[in-house]
Amino acid sequence: MAQDVLHHQNSNKHSRIDQETKTLYYKPTHQQRSSSKCFVFLLAAFVFLCAALLVFASIVRIRNPQVKLTSATLTQIHYSSTTSSSFNATLLAHLTITNPNYGGFSYDNSEVSVVYGGGVRFGDIARLGKDTVKARESKGINVSMKVRSPNNVTLLAGNHSGAFNLTSYAKFNGTVRLLKIIKKRNNIEVACLINLNFTSHQVQAIHC
């Protein structure tokens, strides 16, 4: 009987020791798991914050709008291939403005002109009114302007083929506005070479 009691006491003592050992063993393991979860959470939050900052920086970064001469047509053509060649016509041009920003591009005081040779202006300057290109959109603009020989017609003397290379210049002065608090002044220009043939009444090619 005494041996049974002693055996029972020893069993209880070993059981308590085993329980305390397990408690001591699992306690730091649980803390390590909590620390690992906290680290993963902080890492995920940091990655998310960096991604959000990159997206925000991409949105608020202001890029220059692009303008391109997409087509040109001649109408009302009057051409003379005498010794002093001369011509006048109406040039119908179609421009496209592309706004890559997340804010609107508003322009004013803009113009389109045509020059020949070393910079001699042909005809009138087309003035464009105020307008706005919405964010991340493109807008087409139709321009009609008179193109005619300058007073110094010797520039065209001896040209009986009716083929000329003219250069069109388009200039837009405007402002890009973001979030109603950020704005930047943008002046964009484009020059395009127009290959015209006044005898066939055709625009042969456009190079921008």
Description:
- The protein is an alpha+beta fold.
- It has two domains: 1-60; 66-207, Immunoglobulin-like (Sandwich).
- Helix content is 28%, strand content 47%.
- It has one helix and ten strands, in the order H-E-E-E-E-E-E-E-E-E-E.
- It has one helix at 2-60; strands at residues 66-80, 86-98, 105-116, 120-121, 126-128, 131-133, 138-148, 163-178, 182-197, 202-207.
- Strands 3, 4, 5, 6, 8, 9 and 10 form a seven-stranded antiparallel beta sheet that branches. It has a three-stranded antiparallel beta sheet with strand order 1-2-7, with no helix packed on it.
- The N and C termini lie far apart (110 Å).
- Mean pLDDT is 79; it is low at 5-9 and 22-26.
Major β-sheet profile: 7 strands, antiparallel
Mean pLDDT level:
79
Strand content: over 45%
Number of domains: 2
Structural class computed from helices and strand pairing: alpha+beta
